[in-house]
Amino acid sequence: MPVDGERTAEEWRRHAREFVDRDLHPIAARIDREDRIPEEAIRALARERFLGLGIPPSWDGAGGDGRCVAAVLEELARGSAAVAVLVAVHLSVCASPILVWGSEAQQERYLRPLARGERIGAFALTEPGAGSDAGALRTRYTAGPDGFVLAGSKMFISNAVSAGIVVLFATRDPALGHAGISAFLVPPGTGGFSVAQRLDKLGLRGSETTELVLERVRLPPDALLGPEGAGLRIALTSLAGGRVGIAACALGVAHAAFEEMRAAVRDSDDPWKRHALARAYAELAAARSLVGEAADRRDAGAPFVIEASVAKLVASRAAVSIASAGVDVAGPAGVGGSAEPQRLLRDARVFPLVEGTTEVQELVIARRLLGEEPAREAGPSRGPDG
Ligand SMILES: Cc1cc2nc3c(=O)[nH]c(=O)nc-3n(C[C@H](O)[C@H](O)[C@H](O)COP(=O)(O)OP(=O)(O)OC[C@H]3O[C@@H](n4cnc5c(N)ncnc54)[C@H](O)[C@@H]3O)c2cc1C
Question: Tell me, what's the pLDDT at 385?
Fold first, then answer.
């Protein structure tokens, strides 16, 4: 088999499938039960090069385009949705903005170890009072000759406990609106930066979701990612790409639930179960084609914001719908504590909430369909966009 950047999306998919069947799926129930991804599993993700996907080999990445990333995320999520989300966040909303916006020195310091899987990446935008309306964030920074001082808090941040670098957003002054927001690279261990409470979640257990506290965090001048004031643009473009990745993760959960259902229907004579299986297949096929279309448009450099939101909306709905039907088909056995159908349903149920809720995807789609300007630049906060 060819290595890294020479692999096609189908070769990456096969590689991921073998890894999932051999190493990941067998520990998925334990990850869920213990709400923890073992260190060894993270090392295995690095060894298999999944943590370097989409990053050029010149930065020690594994190369590959968005199709390759989507194929691998789908397969990983088929085994463990929590692990897939760890990889999706690491690649799409941490490594990717550093690749696009980082200086050469920032890329040397952070992108290279991210690509090798020596650091895990996180992305901190959401705050207790700023989720769907990300432009309303209140974490403040002041700028001086020695660099920046940040203060505030972040909420629901994935990967933050394990993170080796966090792409974090703060405003110079909320009165400046979107133009006041900048992006920073914050290495954990920086004084005043701490991980506070961790969310005990319904699904995606194992994927850390935590609050971050910033108390007079001092950062050097070269901690600024991209130009000052470009933060919201960096966040929103990263999230548009991230939605394709999260859609692929949801697709993986939908696929796993479909396969569980197929096995159960094989052992049954109930006609209604055949109808449920056929409906699930149609939903899965539609979601898969939309995820592929969004990834292809992104790879081709074509506008893909609508396609990414549509893919995320449809794939996360398909995951919930198929996993729910899977529980029906399995019957009481499907809701038992260690049963696969109930875990898949709990995992599926979280996808409509992450990287923009379903309502936010609808707003993004409607705004684009109506030809309205995305809320990217200066001006008061106008609500969610992508
Ligand atoms: C498991 C998990 C992992 C996450 N990881 C990260 C991460 O790594 N980094 C990060 O920055 N964030 C992360 N988030 C945060 C996530 O992106 C936000 O939860 C999400 O954007 C919603 O924001 P909110 O929680 O403030 O809800 P709100 O914005 O308060 O929304 C609450 C409800 O109101 C609806 N709503 C809000 N505004 C509108 C509107 N204008 N029109 C119609 N309906 C509306 C929403 O759809 C939702 O149903 C994560 C969340 C979860 C659950």
Answer: 39
Pocket lining for ligand 1, CB < 6 angstroms? 89, 123-126, 131-132, 156-158, 204, 209, 350, 353-357, 359-360, 363, 383-384
Query: Looking at ligand 1, which residue's alpha carbon is closest to its atom 12?
Result: 126
Q: Based on the domain organization, do 16 and 127 belong to the same domain?
A: no
Residue 358 has pLDDT above 50, yes or no: yes
Look up the CATH number of the domain holding residue 150.
2.40.110.10
Please choose from 157, 353, 362 the residue to mutate so as to test ligand 1's pocket, defined by most ligand atoms within 8 A of CB. Answer: 353
Output the six-digit token pair for 361: 């995807």
pLDDT (tens digit, 9 = 90+) per residue, 304-344?
Answer: 999 999 999 999 999 999 999 999 999 998 888 889 999 99
Is 382 within the bounds of a domain?
A: no
Average pLDDT over residues 230-251: 96
Instruction: Please report the atom of ligand 1 found closest to the CA of residue 359.
Output: 47
One domain for residues 95 and 159: no
The 3-state secondary structure of 45-65 reads: HHHCCHHHECCCHHHCCCECC
Summary mean pLDDT of the chain: 94
Average pLDDT on 157-179 reads 95
Cross-strand partners of 198: 210
Q: Which amino acid is at 13?
A: R
Residues marked as catalytic: 355
Share of the chain above pLDDT 90, in %: 89
Domain of 340, in residue numbers: 232-369
